[in-house]
Design a protein that fits this description.
By secondary structure, the protein is α/β, with parallel strands linked by helices. It is built from 16 helices and eleven strands. The protein has a seven-stranded mixed beta sheet, sandwiched between helices. It has a four-stranded antiparallel beta sheet with strand order 2-1-4-5, with no helix packed on it. The longest helix is centred in the first third of the chain and has 49 residues. The protein is elongated.
Length: 532
C-alpha cells in the first residue's frame, strides 16, 4: 500500500468530516438573515451553503474512492499471501484454504479493514462537532458532549460477549463449509446409494447451527445498539433543558442556537454509534484474524522455487529403513539401491505399504529411521548427496491434476517454453495427433473431463519431461486404464532414458524391469536377495 494513498485519505477524511457540522453552520448563517435582509445577503447565504455541501460531499466521494482503492490492494495482497502459504506448506488442507480465501478474507475485508479505515473518519466527525459545541457555550457544550459519550457504555460491558459470539460464528461457518465440500465431492456415492435424506439432514443441522450462531451475533450487536436509545434521550433532553434555563443569564443563548447545538449533538451521537458498530465488527473478527495470522506465520516446508538442476542423479540408497503406521510396522531393517536409468517395479498385497514406500523414497514422508539419500558421482568418482533432491523427482498418480488451461499452460506451468520444444514433447508422449490440429491450444475442462485417462497421464509425463526430471515415481497409474492403454503408458514410461520406479497392483511382465522389489511381511525382497 503506497503512503500517498494514506496521506490522501487523511486529507479527504478531514474535509468530509464537516458533514456533521453542515446543519449547524447553515442554521447559524440563517440566523443572520431577517425579513429586512438584502437580496445580496440571501444570495451570499445560498452560495455559502451550496459551496459547503459541494466541498463536503466531494470529500465524501473521494474518501470512498481512496478507501476502495486501499481495500482492493490489501485484499489482493492478503488473498495472494494466503494462497502462497498454502502452496508452500503441506500442513494446510484444501478445506482450510477454501474457507480462508472464500470466507475469512472477505470477513476480514468487510468487518476489519473497512472499519479500520473508516474509524478515523468518524473520530474526525466527532471532534469537529465537539469543538463547535464547546465554542458556542462551554457549559451546555460540555453537557451535550457528556451526553453523547453515554452511548459508549453498552459497548464497554458487552464487548467480551460479542467477541465470544464472533469466535463461535467463525468456527461454525468453517465446519459448515467443510461439510458442504465433503458432501459435494461424494455426490456420486450419495446418488448411487440413495443417501439423500441422511446427508440432507446432516447439512440442515450444520446449516442451522451456523445460522443460529450468526443470528446470536447479530442480535447481540442489535441489543448493544438498542440499549443506547434511552441514553440518547437523556443526552438530548437534559442539555437542552439546561440551555433554556441558562438563557436567563446568557444573552448569547437563543432557541435557534440551542436547536443548532441539539442537531450537532445528534450528529455527534450518530458518529459515536457508528464507532460502536465498527468497534463491534472489529471485535467480531478476532478469531478469524488469529486463524489467518497463524496461517501466514507458518514457516514453509515446501520449496517454493524451482531450482536449476545442476546435479546428475547416480543412485538412490536406502539403508536400515524403518517405518511404523498407527503402531503397525510397515518396514524394518530394509536396504536396497536404485541406480540411474534403472526401471524398478514395487509390488505387494493391498495395504502392504507400496504407496507409503514410494512417498518415503520421494522424501514426501519421513521414516522413523531415515537413511534414504540420493547421490551423484562426480567426474572424479567421488559421491556426494544431492540437496534439493525433490527437484529431480516427479510423481505421477492415477489421476493427475489438470488445470482449466490450455495444454501449453498445463505443461509449462508458468515457465517459458517454446512451441517447438512442447510439440517435440507431445510427439514423444504420443499426444501430438490426439488433441486436434493445434494441440497446444487445446483447452482442458473440469480437471481433464474432456480427455481420456490415458491422455491425462501422458500430460503428466510431458510435464516431467519438460522439467527434465531424472527420476519418475509412478503410483499405480494404469490401475483404472484398459489393457491396451495400460500397455501404451507402460511402453512409454519404460522407453524413457531416465529412472522409473513404478508401483503396480496388477503385475506386468517382470522381465522388462531391472529390479522387482516385493513388500512381504515387513521386509522388501529384491530378486533373490532378502534384506533383513
Amino acid at each position: 500500500m503506497t503512503p500517498y494513498k494514506l496521506i490522501l485519505l487523511a486529507i479527504v477524511t478531514v474535509i468530509n468530516s464537516f458533514v456533521s457540522l453542515t446543519f449547524a453552520l447553515v442554521t447559524t448563517w440563517a440566523s443572520e438573515l431577517s425579513a429586512t435582509s438584502l437580496i445580496q445577503d440571501v444570495l451570499w447565504f445560498c452560495a455559502r451553503g451550496l459551496l459547503l455541501y459541494l466541498v463536503v460531499y466531494a470529500g465524501l466521494f473521494l474518501t470512498e474512492v481512496v478507501t476502495n482503492s486501499i481495500l482492493k490492494e490489501v485484499s489482493l495482497s492478503l488473498e495472494a499471501d494466503c494462497m502462497q502459504h498454502y502452496l508452500n506448506n503441506e500442513d494446510l488442507s484444501e478445506d482450510e484454504i477454501v474457507s480462508i480465501v472464500s470466507q475469512d478474507v472477505r470477513m476480514i475485508r468487510e468487518d476489519f479493514y473497512i472499519p479500520t479505515l473508516t474509524i478515523p473518519t468518524y473520530i474526525c466527525r466527532s471532534l469537529i462537532p465537539i469543538i463547535y459545541l464547546l465554542t458556542q457555550n462551554l457549559i451546555v457544550g460540555i453537557c451535550f458532549t457528556i451526553g453523547a459519550t453515554l452511548m459508549l457504555i453498552p459497548q464497554h460491558f458487552m464487548a467480551s460477549k460479542l467477541s465470544s459470539l464472533g469466535n463461535e460464528f467463525s468456527t461454525e461457518r468453517e465446519a459448515s463449509l467443510s461439510m458442504v465440500i465433503d458432501t459435494s465431492k461424494g455426490r456420486s456415492t450419495i446418488i448411487n446409494h440413495s443417501a439423500h435424506h441422511f446427508f440432507m439432514a446432516l447439512l440442515r443441522h450444520k446449516f442451522a447451527q451456523t445460522e443460529q450462531s450468526e443470528f446470536s451475533l447479530h442480535n447481540m450487536q442489535a441489543l448493544m445498539f438498542s440499549l443506547s436509545g434511552p441514553l440518547k434521550g437523556i443526552a438530548d433532553v437534559v442539555p437542552f433543558a439546561l440551555g433554556i434555563y441558562l438563557m436567563r443569564t446568557e444573552p448569547n443563548l437563543t432557541i435557534l442556537l440551542l436547536v443548532a447545538m441539539l442537531g450537532t449533538a445528534g450528529s455527534l451521537k450518530n458518529q459515536f454509534q457508528q464507532l460502536i458498530y465498527l468497534s463491534g465488527d472489529i471485535r467480531g473478527t478476532t478469531a478469524v484474524r488469529r486463524k489467518v495470522g497463524r496461517v501466514l506465520a507458518t514457516r514453509s516446508n515446501v520449496s517454493a522455487q524451482v531450482l536449476p538442476t545442476v546435479h546428475r542423479f547416480s543412485y538412490l540408497s536406502v539403508r536400515n529403513l524403518e517405518k511404523r503406521y498407527q503402531q503397525r510396522i510397515l518396514f524394518k531393517n530394509t536396504n536396497f539401491e536404485i541406480k540411474a536409468g534403472q526401471k524398478v517395479l514395487i509390488i505387494g498385497e493391498s495395504g502392504s505399504g507400496k504407496s507409503t514406500l514410494l512417498e518415503l523414497l520421494m522424501q514426501a514422508k519421513q521414516p522413523d529411521q531415515r537413511h534414504i539419500d540420493l547421490f551423484e558421482v562426480n567426474e572424479n568418482g567421488v559421491r556426494q548427496p544431492i540437496e534439493h533432491s525433490r527437484q529431480l523427482i516427479s510423481l505421477i498418480s492415477q489421476r493427475p491434476h489438470l488445470f482449466n488451461l490450455s495444454i501449453r499452460d498445463n505443461i509449462c506451468l508458468g515457465q517459458t517454453c517454446s512451441d517447438d520444444e512442447l510439440l517435440a514433447i507431445l510427439k514423444q508422449v504420443r499426444l501430438d495427433k490426439q488433441l486436434g490440429e493445434h494441440p497446444l491450444d487445446f483447452m482442458i475442462e473440469q480437471n481433464g473431463a474432456n480427455i481420456s485417462g490415458g491422455q491425462q497421464i501422458k500430460i503428466e509425463i510431458a510435464r516431467a519431461l519438460r522439467n527434465r526430471k531424472q527420476v519418475i515415481f509412478a503410483d499405480e497409474i494404469t490401475a483404472n486404464l484398459d489393457a491396451t492403454t495400460s500397455n501404451q503408458i507402460r511402453e512409454l514410461l519404460l522407453g524413457l532414458p531416465i529412472t522409473i520406479v513404478e508401483v503396480a497392483h496388477h503385475y506386468p511382465d517382470f522381465s522388462r524391469y531391472d529390479q522387482v522389489l516385493e513388500i512381504d511381511n515387513q521386509l522388501i525382497i529384491g530378486g533373490r536377495m532378502r534384506t533383513g
